[in-house]
Amino acid sequence: MLSDYPRGIPPKATAIVAMLKDNRQVSRKSQAKARASFLSACLDCLAPLAPGRLNCHLRVMVEWKITPGLTEYDTALAAMEARVAEIHAGTAPELIWLLEHPPLYTAGTSANPKDLTDPERFPVYEARRGGQYTYHGPGQRVIYVMLNVGVRGHDVRAFVQQLERWVIDTLGEFGLTGHIRPGRVGVWIERPEKPLIAGGNVAEDKIAAIGIRLRKWISFHGISINVEPDLEHFSGIVPCGISEHGVTSLVDLGLPVTIEDLDVALRSRFDGVFCAPTRKGSDE
Length: 284
Fold this sequence. Notes:
single chain, alpha/beta, three-stranded mixed β-sheet, globular
């Protein structure tokens, strides 16, 4: 691919290729790091030739997987951890994995035990991701995002903002305006038809949760978007530690949307977010 460009492979990348050819002198760990450096060097080469499309060539390397039915949480966690190791080793491409779980609660690294108000209701799993308590269940699309943040800018904050933008752009496909609120993780929908909350503010309900973990700069865990889950199931926790706001779903908002419809929107909006240049420190 790089041979199609007038500048060819940059010198840094050429040196890395030469090093990788001599496997006797390079450890497996060093090879993995070299592959990441190669991609980074190639990005540096391509950027001036295609302004505004810095990461677009990476899209061909992202696999999309949809698992039908309900996937047990332990099964999904083990699969994610295995894939993260493969991505880091350079033996598998990045992955966007779409699935549903049976009813369960997960506890993030900041979870407060007091926020688990009904611990006997559903199984509870230690997720070891960022965030607090979250519900997963049928009718909710879970999007596990296994991307190499190292070759996408080494900027965790910018990466989370990309995830937020992806959700907001996807909801826009259905005529919804999602909001990001300081101090409240996730994506929120204003509910002007509901009574005002304390302070005279418009009520807001959460429609999507976001929580990730990085291992060697590879992300896993990710996003959940409520399509048509049983919203009463959220009552066994204080979702994300926020008690003054509720939860909603696409169907709860009166939209006849299926999970398959959401999948199409997610796919169509992915490139527009993750193919854009990474902008460090952006508050957008």
